[in-house]
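P.,

For your records, the input lines for the assembly:
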Amino acid sequence: MKIALAQMHVVPMNPEKNLETMLNMIESARQQNAEIVVFPELCLSGYLLSDQWLNRQFCRDLMHLNAPLLEASKGLTLVFGNIYEVPATDSGGFHPNKDGRTRLYNAAYVMHDGAYAQRSESVDFLLPDGVHPKTLLPNYRFFDDQRYFFSLADVAQDFSVPVSSLAQPFLIDTSDGPIKLGVQVCEDLWCKDYRIQGESINVSKYLIQNGADLLVNISASPWTFHKNDARDRRIKFLKAEIEQADLSFVPFYYANNVGAQNNGKNIVTFDGDSSAYNRKGELVRESIKPFQQDLLVLDHQKIDKVTAQRGSSARIAQKYHAIVTGLRHIPELLGWQEPPKFVIGLSGGVDSALVAALLKQAFGADSVWTVNMPSQYNSEKTKNAAAFISEKLGVKHLVVPIESLVQEQMEVFGKLDESCPSPQWMRKLSDENIQAKIRGTSILSNIAGRYGRMFTNNGNKVEIALGYATLYGDVGGVIAPIGDLTKAEVFAMVRFLNSEIFKEEVLPETMLPDELFRFGSDDIAPSAELRDAQVDPMKFGYHCALLEAATSFKKVTAEEVMSWYLEGTLAKHLNVAEALLQRWGLKDPETFITDLEWFYEAIRKSVFKRIQAPPIILTSPSAYGFDIRESQLPQWQSPNYLALKQKVLAMDSYQERLALGGRL
Amino acid sequence: MKIALAQMHVVPMNPEKNLETMLNMIESARQQNAEIVVFPELCLSGYLLSDQWLNRQFCRDLMHLNAPLLEASKGLTLVFGNIYEVPATDSGGFHPNKDGRTRLYNAAYVMHDGAYAQRSESVDFLLPDGVHPKTLLPNYRFFDDQRYFFSLADVAQDFSVPVSSLAQPFLIDTSDGPIKLGVQVCEDLWCKDYRIQGESINVSKYLIQNGADLLVNISASPWTFHKNDARDRRIKFLKAEIEQADLSFVPFYYANNVGAQNNGKNIVTFDGDSSAYNRKGELVRESIKPFQQDLLVLDHQKIDKVTAQRGSSARIAQKYHAIVTGLRHIPELLGWQEPPKFVIGLSGGVDSALVAALLKQAFGADSVWTVNMPSQYNSEKTKNAAAFISEKLGVKHLVVPIESLVQEQMEVFGKLDESCPSPQWMRKLSDENIQAKIRGTSILSNIAGRYGRMFTNNGNKVEIALGYATLYGDVGGVIAPIGDLTKAEVFAMVRFLNSEIFKEEVLPETMLPDELFRFGSDDIAPSAELRDAQVDPMKFGYHCALLEAATSFKKVTAEEVMSWYLEGTLAKHLNVAEALLQRWGLKDPETFITDLEWFYEAIRKSVFKRIQAPPIILTSPSAYGFDIRESQLPQWQSPNYLALKQKVLAMDSYQERLALGGRL
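C-alpha cells returned:
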C-alpha cells in the first residue's frame, strides 16, 4: 500500500483554488497508485483567518466543499482538514461553543471510496463518521485556537467520557487488507505540556491503544528554525510514552502545508517538511522541497526498511527562504493575480539595501523601484551606495531631494515656534523627525499611492524593539520584511546573499562590520543621517543577543541579566564574545547598568509605535506583532530589581568576577 | 456581620499604588466594622497586561506583595485577586502551564486574621491554603486568559478529580460564628456555555454543594451597556440550576474594579457596579458610583430584607462616561503624574468637534489645543465653526493654513509625474491624500512632537470600518476616543453634551441632521473637504445599523442581509425606519446590492489601515482593535452568496415584498 503526503500550497481564503490544487494532487497520487492521500490541516481555507472563524456562514460554505472531495475519494482514502460545525438542529438541541456560538471543530476528515469513513469502534457524542476534531488547541504565540474551536478534549469533558475513548481510528480497506487509520491534527503531536491524570494528553497513545495500525498527523505548522529537529525529538517522546504503556509505536505520517498566512500583524510562513517515521520513531523520509509544493509517495510496507538523515541548511539561509515566501504572500492576501509593485526608500544603509535585494529576489527587478531622498545630512558615500546597489539589482532608481520640503516645514514651524514655546532639545528632535516623516509619508507613501506601488518598512528587529524609528516616518510601510531579524542577522544575510545567491558583491561590503561590529573609517556605519555625524546608539551584537534573550521563550528579565553580570557569566549566557562586552565598555558596572536600563525602558516606551507598525514577516521564535502581545504600561521596578541594581553598582568590576569564574 | 465590597480604582502595572489603595480601603472598612473586605480580580497588578504575564519574575514580585496584605488581614477577612505561581520545587516536581512555562493561576486569595484561610474540606492538588484559581478562562473578544493561566478546571483534569470536589469554600470565623465562604473569579459567574457532563460548569453550584454559606465573586469585568442587567439574569440562571440540584441559593457578593486598562489596540473601561444579591437572587444593593471608587458596606444578616431597583442611565450617557474614563487612563498608561496635553485637528466637522469636547471634559480646557488647517477646499462655514467651538470650550485655537505645503509637494510630484506615469484618477486621489497627510503628519504629529503634546484620531467607527480615512493622515494619533461610536452615536452624543453637560449650544446644531440624517443647505454636512463639493459617501443611519449588525455577536453576513431584503424585513432587522431605506434609495434592488457589496468589500479592504491605527476606546460589544481580530484576506464570494445576489437582482422591488409582509 502506498501513502501520499500532499504538501500543498494553501492559499488562505481561496477555497476554490485550494480545492483545485487538492483535486490535481489526488489525481497525481492516484496515478502513482497511492491508496491514502493526506492533506494538511484546514487546507481548503487556510488556518490563520482570525475572526473569519466567527462567521458561521463562511464555515458552512466551507463544509459544502466536502462534496467534490467525497466524489474524488472514490477508489481511495482521503485525509484532510476542514471545519465541522455541529448542527444546531441535532437531536440533542443546541450545542454551544465555548463562546456561546454554535460548536465548531477544527477537524481531520477521513473519506473512503466516496463515503465518510467509519470508526473501528463507533462513538456517539456529536462525532459523525469521518470527522475527528483536533484534541489540543494551542493558544500561545500567535495561536488563538481556543478562541474559535471546540476540541476533542472539550467533547470528552462535555459528555464526561475519557478523551482516550473518543480517539478511535478509522477502519479502511486497502490492498493489504483492512487497516485502522489513526488521525490527529497538528498540536496533537506536541502534547507534552497538556495534562490529564498527571500525564500528557497523548493522543497518539490513545489511538494506538484503540488499535491504530498507523498514525497520520495533518498540520498547519509554521516554519521556525530547527522545528524539524524538535519534531523528531517529539516523535521519540511519543514513542517512549507509548512503550511505557506496553504498546508498540506505529508508522507515523506527517503532512504539512507550504506558503504563508497572516494574522494582520505578522506574516507566518510554512515550510512543509512533510515526513514519515518508522516503528522505531526514526525519520524515513522528508520532503526535500522546503516552502514548495510537493507530493511524497511512500510504500507503507517498506517503511521500516529505510531511514533518512535530515538535510541541513544554515539558519540564515532558512530565514532568507522564509522571508521570500512571506513576501510572495502579498499578492495572495490582496487577491491579486499579478505581482505587486514596490518602492523602497534606499538610504544607502544596510537595512534598506537588504530589503531591496529581498524584494528583487521575490518579485524580480521590474517590480522594484528604489528612491534615495537626500537632505543636507546625507553623505556622498551613502548616496553613491544607493545608486550602486540599484544598478547592481537592475531596478529603477529615483533621487528625490527633500530639502525644499524641509525648508517649507521649517518655515511653518518657525512661525508656530513664536507662539508655542518648547525646549531647545525638543525642537532639535522634532527637526530630525520632520525629515524622517517627509521621507516616509510625504515622499514614499505618496509615490506608493500615486503610482500604484507599495512601500516597505525597512526596520530591523532591534530598531523595532527599541523604537529607534519615527512614527509616520520610517515606521510606516505595508510590510516589514526584515522586522524579525536582529542587526547581526541583517549583516549575516547580506553576506549570505552576496556569497550564495548573487555570487558577487551586489550589496557593498563597506556596509559590513568586523566580528566585533566595528566599522572602518571608509565604511558605511549605521546612521539615520538626520543630523551631522549621527551614529546609531545601539551596541550591535550585544543588544542583538540581549533582545533575543528578552524575547525568547524564557523572557529574560533585566533582573536575570544583572544576576548574570554579578556572576560574571553574562557573555556566556548571551553566547557572545567577552571581547564584545569589552568593545562596548560594558565591563564597567555603571555603563552596563545605564545601558541595560535604557534598553528595557526603550522597549517598554515604544509599544505605542509598534501598535501602529505594519505586519512583520516572522522568522524568530518570538516576533513583534501578534506573536508578542503588548499593553501600554508604565515602568515598574520591584524591590528585588532595585536591590540587584545596587549590588551591581557596588561591584568593583566585571573583570574581577570573571576571573573568579563566576563565583561570588 | 458586615461585608465591604471594595470597588477600587485599579491602576495597571502600579502595584505599590494599588496596595496603598487597598490598605486605605481596608482601614476604612475596618472603621465601619466590616469583617470581610472584598477586592476585585488581579487588583494589585491590573488584569489586561498582555504578555507581561509571561514574565514569571514579575509574577513572583507580585506575590511578594501578599505579605503586607497578610499583615493587614489581622482581625478580619480579606478576599482579593492576585497571581499564584505553582512553585517548580514542589514535591511533585515541575508542573507545566499549558504553554510549558511554570503553572500560573489567576487566583482569589482569602486571608483571615493574619493567615491564609483554610478550606472547609482540605484539598491537595497544588491548591494551597487561601488560594483559589479562576475556574473558567474567557478567550473571546479581547480576553486571552487561556494564553496565560491554568484554571481550576485544568487542575481537576490534571489530577483526574471532579472540578466540583475542588471548589471548596473557606472556613472563616465571624461575629456570627463560623461561616463557609465560597469564592470565585469573574467569568466563573458567566458559566452557561462552559460544559461538563452535559451541564454548565456551575462553580456557584459546586461551592454551595460543598457547604458555602455565601458566595463572593471578584471581577475585573469591563463595562458594556446593559452588562448589569445581563448579570442580574445570570444570577437568576445560577439560582435556577442550583435549585434544580435541590440546593438553596445563598447571598452573592460581587466586587468589580473601576478605571481603565488597555491591550495596546483597545482601551477597556471598568464601571464597577459592585453589587449584592439575596437568597432569592434579587439585587439588594449596587454601587451608585459608576466608574468611581466606592466602598459598599453591607449587613449580611439583613441582606434578605431589602431589595433595590437598578438605576438606569441612557446608553449614550454611559458611553460618554466610558470615553472620559478611557481618556483619563492615558496618564496612567504612560506613568505620568500630570495631565497630558493634547492637540486636536479641528476641521469644523462633527467628529473632531466631539473629540475636542470630550478631551476638554476629561482634562480641562488648559490641556487642549485645537488647530484648524484650511486649504482652498475648506469653507468659511467650517473654519468659523472650528473657531466658535474652540472659543466656547475655552481652549487655545491655532490656524495653520496648509496651502504652501501642498504647493511644495505638488511641485515635487509634478516633476516625478513626468517620469512616473499613472492614471488621472489615481493622481487626483493622491492629491486628496496629500492634503490629509499634510494635516495628520506634517502639521499635527509635528505640533505634538515639537510642543510636547499628543494628537488625537478623530475617526468614528463607520469611517474606521470602511477605511474612509488616509493612512499617515487622519488614521494617525495616539488614541481614537470615538473610534467605537457609529456616526449616529456621534450625533447623539453631541446632542447629549449640549443638553445634559454643557446645557448650551457649545457644539453647533448645524452639524446635526434630522431624524433621517438629512442636512439643511446651511448646515455642515459631513465632508472630508479634500476637493470641491465633496460629501461623505456613507449612508448614515443605515450604514451605522449595518455595521452594528456586521460586528455584532452574530456577525451578520452579506448573505443574511440579502435574505432580509428578500423577505422584506431589512428595516425591521436593522431596527431603522422604512423611510430611511427610502431616503437612501435602497428600495431599488440594484442600488441595495451595489451598496451592500461596497460596504462589505470596503471593510475587508481596509484591514491594512486598521493594522496601523491607534488604540480605540471600547464602547460597543465589538470594537475594532484587539476585540475584533483581522487577517488581511482576499474577497471570497461563495456559490450561496452569488445565488442570493441573483435572487435580489431579480426582484421587481423591495416595496412589493414589504407589502407582502415578508412572505416569499
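Two observations worth noting. The CA atoms of residues 135 and 151 of chain A lie 5 Å apart. The radius of gyration of chain A is 28 Å.

Regards
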